[in-house]
């Protein structure tokens, strides 16, 4: 007996020092002693008149208000008291208020001669929040829409505080919009939706500086909405502003509560985490939208790019075909644009292109499309436009440009060559129509007529392509192909860490043929397969020498075409080249574009993993300019992301800085290295260093050149 009393006294002393609500209970379920936290807990959440202090009984408490489950909980507790089970966890909270957060009752038998049990109340908010957070992040990686993700966050908050009702609000300019509010009536939401935060700043509880409003019913603005929305039972509003990375207000998280429903410290902290998750979802959605827009629009002019143009043209042709209605395509190219760039620099050229786009867009009618393909090439779709009208419209566009431009104090006058092709409805092939317009444009440029309408004679350009293809078929055999290398630099040290291999074609009569001209030809003809193998083998052969004599050089990067990568034997071919050249796999990096990977994600992932199994690194080239692969990034076996040159150039003047920061953040999260492409100035270098990008390549460091020019071989007898 004395031993039991001594044990009870010792456990009571321990109990009083515990930071969580706890009680000691005998074998009959009666509370022997409780600590201060337990008393405070029960004062906050009284158990419907049933005593939960010393002398109270847990079995009675579970039947009349203390635990969820009633008879089921009663039976479970009896099994522990009778020694059939050593411990038990029950949902806890029998009153309206105690259900305001997820609590658990933990019961465990203590080692003692007489039956003695420790009972504690555990706030399970953090565990529940972590489960909800994991689910939310999974949904984000699946590419679920913003509305669904915000709905998840609102439900997460209501899981933490079931007595409340949550709304996620978005800032649209100066106006609030409801992003998600699963349990709040529409009539009350109308008070938020469309609210101008500049005019109603003092009335709005969901802005900085007004995080807790005790009684909305007494407020002249919110009172009527409480009545109309049947929200009289929720007059308290706890709200947290949501900011983006730049500390710009983008929304708010609002929780409407009963007048006497408290928020625990734990719930308060988790609400702040929900606030942060809301910020992540909003920024993630903004980035997705920006990248989707960039994938289909030209960064400089904001016009549709080739991908969006192709889609719209085919749609117009499909609509026109059944009725035989005409569709005109105009291919527009600025004459001698290179002279403008050479005279005024690229900034002048960009300003001219922007003004050309603005003036040409002003010439369009509703339903017509203007796109920018590349450089100084623009293309227009004119539905329901026959040849005579198309010629008139082309003249109008030329007239719109004749007034000249004033750029940086310089007067710029331009002329434009325009090629026109018209579909009559039966020849509804978008690619053919574009090609015909392109041929007509070159004819206009050659003849200097300004505008030409396509005629059905054999295009001269097609003849030239056939001749070029004939030369290309023998280029490797005749030793006309060569590799140039461009260093990849450590931006902190200025030292090369890798090199990208780039193919060049030196024809004895044609001179140096641009890769932009012969690579598409090689892809169209299938010659890219043998040429691609030659490039890989040659890069490994020369790379083996470079790794031995170029200090710090650790990798050789080789571009892979879509046709190469799609072949079933591609991985075997890479393995064979590595064996034949004895090139270390860990020093080879294969560059794939987003478009290649996203064409068939499952097949791409299998091949990429097989390459990784060989020891080869994988880089995703031109990231952000093709398909949006954000939702797939966690599943792609990548090593490197290469930031496209358009983002690098834009980051230097701040236009694309938020996107670059977001890409860096994602790369860090998934463990990818990042290489910035197109670094041409010291400003580009500094912009990349400022966002944490350590590697880059571009003309600022070196133009592509033969390996011997970039890394001369050591003189005989010299040491490195």
Largest sheet: 8 strands, mixed, barrel
Strand order of the largest sheet: 18-19-21-22-23-24-25-26
Q: What Rg do the Cα atoms give?
A: 35 Å
What portion of residues belong to β-strands? Answer: 15-25%
Helical fraction: 40-55%
Spans of at least 5 consecutive residues with low confidence? 44-49, 94-99, 200-210, 715-720
Number of helices: 24
Distance between the termini: 87 Å
What structural category do the secondary elements indicate? Answer: alpha+beta
Q: What does the overall shape look like? A: globular
Domain EAL: 465-718
InterPro entries: Biofilm_reg_signaling, EAL_dom, EAL_sf, GAF-like_dom_sf, GGDEF_dom, Nucleotide_cyclase, Rev_trsase/Diguanyl_cyclase
Organism: Deinococcus enclensis
Protein name: Diguanylate cyclase (GGDEF)-like protein
Tags for this model:
five-stranded antiparallel β-sheet; Nucleotide_cyclase; EAL_sf; eight-stranded mixed barrel; 24 helices; alpha+beta; 26 strands; Diguanylate cyclase (GGDEF)-like protein; GGDEF_dom; 720 residues
């Amino acid at each position: 007996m004395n031993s039991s009393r001594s044990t009870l006294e010792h456990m009571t002393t321990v109990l009083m020092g515990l930071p969580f609500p706890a009680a000691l209970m005998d074998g009959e379920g009666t509370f022997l002693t409780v600590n201060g936290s337990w008393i405070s807990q029960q004062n906050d959440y009284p158990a419907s008149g049933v005593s939960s202090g010393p002398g109270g009984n847990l079995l009675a408490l579970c039947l009349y208000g203390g635990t969820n489950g009633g008879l089921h909980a009663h039976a479970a507790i009896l099994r522990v008291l009778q020694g059939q089970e050593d411990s038990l966890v029950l949902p806890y909270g029998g009153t309206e208020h105690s259900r305001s957060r997820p609590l658990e009752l933990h019961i465990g038998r203590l080692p003692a001669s007489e039956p003695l049990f420790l009972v504690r109340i555990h706030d399970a908010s953090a565990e529940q929040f972590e489960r909800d957070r994991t689910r939310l992040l999974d949904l984000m990686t699946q590419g679920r829409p913003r509305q669904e993700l915000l709905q998840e966050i609102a439900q997460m908050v209501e899981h933490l505080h079931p007595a409340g009702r949550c709304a996620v609000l978005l800032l649209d300019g100066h106006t609030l919009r409801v992003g998600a509010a699963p349990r709040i009536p529409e009539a009350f939401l109308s008070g938020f939706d469309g609210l101008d935060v500049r005019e109603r700043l003092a009335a709005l509880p969901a802005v900085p500086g007004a995080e807790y409003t005790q009684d909305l019913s007494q407020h002249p603005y919110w009172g009527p909405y409480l009545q109309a929305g049947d929200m009289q039972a929720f007059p308290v509003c706890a709200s947290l502003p949501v900011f983006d990375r730049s500390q710009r207000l983008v929304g708010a998280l609002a929780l409407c509560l009963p007048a006497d429903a408290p928020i625990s410290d734990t719930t308060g902290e988790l609400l702040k985490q929900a606030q942060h998750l809301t910020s992540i979802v909003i920024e993630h959605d903004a980035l997705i939208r920006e990248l989707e827009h960039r994938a289909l629009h030209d960064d400089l002019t904001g016009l549709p790019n080739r991908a969006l143009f192709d889609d719209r043209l085919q749609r117009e042709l499909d609509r026109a075909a059944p009725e035989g209605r005409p569709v005109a395509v105009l291919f527009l190219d600025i004459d001698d644009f290179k002279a403008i760039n050479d005279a005024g620099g690229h900034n002048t050229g960009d300003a001219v292109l922007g003004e050309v786009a603005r003036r040409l867009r002003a010439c369009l009618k509703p339903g017509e499309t203007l796109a920018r393909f590349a450089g100084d090439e623009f293309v227009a779709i004119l539905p329901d436009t026959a040849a005579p009208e198309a010629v008139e419209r082309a003249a109008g566009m030329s007239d719109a440009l004749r007034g000249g431009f004033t750029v940086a104090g310089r007067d710029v006058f331009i002329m434009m060559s325009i090629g026109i092709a018209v579909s009559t409805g039966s020849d509804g092939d978008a690619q053919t129509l574009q090609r015909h317009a392109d041929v007509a444009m070159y004819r206009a440029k050659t003849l200097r007529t300004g505008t030409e309408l396509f005629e059905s004679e054999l295009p001269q350009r097609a003849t030239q392509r056939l001749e070029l293809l004939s030369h290309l078929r023998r280029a490797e055999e005749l030793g006309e192909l060569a590799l140039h290398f461009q260093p990849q630099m450590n931006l902190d040290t200025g030292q090369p860490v890798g090199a990208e291999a780039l193919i060049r074609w030196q024809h004895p009569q044609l001179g140096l043929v641009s890769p932009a001209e012969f690579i598409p030809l090689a892809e169209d003809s299938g010659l890219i397969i043998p040429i691609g193998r030659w490039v890989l083998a040659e890069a490994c052969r020369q790379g083996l020498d470079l790794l031995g004599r170029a200090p710090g050089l650790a990798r050789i990067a080789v571009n892979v075409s879509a046709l190469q990568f799609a072949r079933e034997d591609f991985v075997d071919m890479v393995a064979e080249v590595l064996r034949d050249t004895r090139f270390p796999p860990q020093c080879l990096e294969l560059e794939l574009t987003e478009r290649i990977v996203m064409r068939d994600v499952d097949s791409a992932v299998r091949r990429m993993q097989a390459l990784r199994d060989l020891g080869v690194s994988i880089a995703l080239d031109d990231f952000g300019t093709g398909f949006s692969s954000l939702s797939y990034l966690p599943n792609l076996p990548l090593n490197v992301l290469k930031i496209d040159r358009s983002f690098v150039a834009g980051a230097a003047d701040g236009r694309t800085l938020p996107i670059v920061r977001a890409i860096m953040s994602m790369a860090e999260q998934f463990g990818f290295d990042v290489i910035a492409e197109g670094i041409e100035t010291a400003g580009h270098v500094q912009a990349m260093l400022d966002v944490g990008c350590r590697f880059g390549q571009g003309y600022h460091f070196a133009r592509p050149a033969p390996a011997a020019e970039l890394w001369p071989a050591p003189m005989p007898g010299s040491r490195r």
